[in-house]
């Protein structure tokens, strides 16, 4: 991983959109601070589209798409996306989202996790989810470590579900999709572009394990400094890394990107 100093004007001027994780990428200690929110507006005002790509639930994505300065939002680790167009809120659902029995199967997974992994608990935002199950290991106390998150993920896998570990939750679902798969679909539906033909025109910023598909795909991906907390468990790391953690690092990235574009 290289510092932001290694980013060149040629790279920055090609960027038409920034995809970004939310938790511990835009936030610090669970809060979206004013400078990070202003950074989103700064990109918007400079003509650079912003699309959060998050594990957070559909209910949050509805609000974000309506009220944040974004072109859309990918949620539930790629199950769905929302975007506004001509005053209407549109929703995309990935075609590989599992069928009607998925929630019953996830209920069985939930019961197994809570039974087998001490101190695990369902995430408080579960009520706003449509397609996945979120198990909290590090959003609220007691804070558990990555070894426990791996135990939770192992239960999902044993029961045939996919699972991704973020900085706060283990998210699991039935269906063949992830953040990258829905980002690919969103880009085609929203802008009529293919990621394959425009890889260098997009930048992704993230912080943790569930961002690996994005780090692996985008040649100009950036991690905020807390990526170092997870790097030993990752095989795909971003090209750039900020010196600041969370939202502070995101602000550093935006400042550098806009400075190079203006220079």
How many structural domains? 2
| The CATH architecture of the largest domain | 3-Layer(aba) Sandwich
The CATH superfamily name of the largest domain is: HAD superfamily/HAD-like
Tally of DSSP β-strands = 13
CATH T-level topology of the largest domain: Rossmann fold
Instruction: Give the spatial strand order of the biggest sheet.
Output: 1-13-12-11-2-3
Q: Helix/strand/pairing class, anyone?
A: alpha/beta
- What overall geometry do the principal axes of the alpha carbons give? globular
Radius of gyration: 18 Å
Largest sheet: 6 strands, parallel
Cα distance spanning the termini: 24 Å
- Secondary structure tally, helices: 8
Low-confidence stretches: none
In CATH's first tier, which class of the largest domain applies? Alpha Beta
Portion of residues within helices: 25-40%
Percentage of residues in strands: 15-25%
H and E string: EHEHEHEEEHEEHEEHEHEEH
Describe this structure in words.
With 263 residues, this protein is of the alpha/beta class. The chain has two domains: 2-95 and 177-262, Rossmann fold; 102-173, Hypothetical Protein Ta0175, Chain: A, domain 2 (Alpha-Beta Complex). The chain is 35% helix and 19% strand. It has helices spanning 9-14, 34-45, 58-67, 102-116, 146-158, 179-191, 212-217, 246-262, and strands spanning 2-3, 17-20, 49-52, 73-75, 80-85, 88-93, 121-122, 133-136, 162-165, 169-173, 202-206, 222-223, 240-241. The strands form three sheets. The chain has a six-stranded parallel beta sheet with strand order 1-13-12-11-2-3, with helices on one face. Helix 2 (34-45) runs parallel beside helix 8 (246-262). The protein is globular. It starts with a strand and ends with a helix. The mean pLDDT is 97.
